[in-house]
Specification:
Blueprint lengths: L1 E6 L8 H14 L3 E4 L16 H11 L4 E8 L5 H15 L3 E6 L17 H19 L3 E5 L4 E6 L12 E5 L5 H7 L3 E4 L3 H15 L6 E6 L6 H6 L3 E5 L6 H14 L12 E3 L5 E3 L4
Parallel strand pairs: 1-2, 1-10, 2-3, 3-4, 4-7, 7-8, 8-9, 9-10
Antiparallel strand pairs: 5-6, 11-12
Length: 291
């Protein structure tokens, strides 16, 4: 089970320089990844500073060499797919193929969507997410894109460069559901960012395995607060444990966790860290992205 930090880029952490420093320290301490919340404002905390996670991830990529970096998660309905596609490729290049795109519906917590004029209807956002994901894949292919959808339009354009990796940029899909369309969506891609109990996760992975045929090469990134035991999640198939910090986290608190190393942050010691490989739930060895 890989170990990562799941940082809120708010308050004292709302500074790309601070986040880059934390990512560098985390890499030296033996963590396998650092992921950021993706928000533009926190309406329930109107005086809380918020850092753009994409700019911060660029700084983090430049400050590190090994660890995986990504969003958990980007509400795709709030973004233009073509812009996300370009930013993701730029991060993929800058990091040398270490970027993961976590996506989901997002939520209107405190009016974060509605008060900015964004769509709040869950069905509409789900349609935008599915169409946006399809468009991302086509843009990343490097082929000429013709797309006339319900939400987006591309009229015969080609987007270059393509991702650093021939297999493309890994997409991990968030869900809280134990059945239905969210799991079918996740099964199409390379990973899952679940929310729920270990029993919920077991149910999710059972459905995903039915759609995929098996879970080989499929990443499962579970986030939990300090004190949560990751082992029950590992037993049912989680491949990543993300140490989740509170929304308001002091820099010193984050530095203390980093200094303690991945063992104290939860999970068993990594296997074969030097090659960046792990044992998947099915027992077959693969790299971080399941290839």
């Amino acid at each position: 089970m890989r170990r990562a930090l799941y940082l809120p880029p708010f308050g004292e952490l709302a500074d790309s320089r601070v986040l880059a420093d934390l990512a560098s320290r985390a890499e030296l301490a033996g963590f396998d990844g650092v992921f950021l919340w993706d928000h533009v404002v926190r309406p329930l905390r109107p005086t809380l500073p918020v850092c753009d996670p994409w700019i911060a991830l660029a700084a983090m990529a430049a400050a590190t060499e090994r660890i995986i970096l990504g969003t958990r998660v980007t509400p795709l309905s709030r973004r233009r797919p073509q812009v996300v596609a370009r930013q993701a490729v730029a991060l993929d290049q800058l990091s040398g193929g270490r970027f993961v795109l976590g996506v989901g519906l997002g939520g209107d917590n405190g009016g974060e969507l509605g008060r900015l004029g964004e769509t709040t209807d869950p069905r509409t956002r789900a349609g935008m997410l599915d169409e946006g994901l399809d468009l991302l894949e086509r843009i990343w292919s490097g082929d000429v894109v013709h797309h006339e959808g319900e939400h987006y339009r591309v009229d015969g354009l080609r987007f270059l460069p393509t991702p650093e990796r021939a297999e493309g940029i890994p997409v991990w899909v968030a869900t809280q559901s134990t059945r239905g369309a969210p799991l079918r969506r996740a099964a199409r891609f390379q990973g899952l960012c679940p929310e729920g109990s270990p029993e919920d996760l077991a149910a999710m992975l059972s459905v995903i395995a039915e759609h995929r045929g098996d879970l080989r090469g499929f990443e499962v990134a579970v986030g939990g607060p300090p004190g949560t035991d990751p082992e029950p999640y590992a037993e049912v198939g989680a491949t990543w444990w993300l140490h989740q910090f509170p929304e308001v986290t002091a820099r010193a608190e984050a530095e203390e966790v980093v200094a303690g190393g991945p063992r104290r942050a939860g999970g068993p010691p990594p296997d074969d860290v030097s090659t960046g490989r792990h044992v998947s739930p099915g027992g077959q060895r693969g790299n971080f992205f399941g290839s």
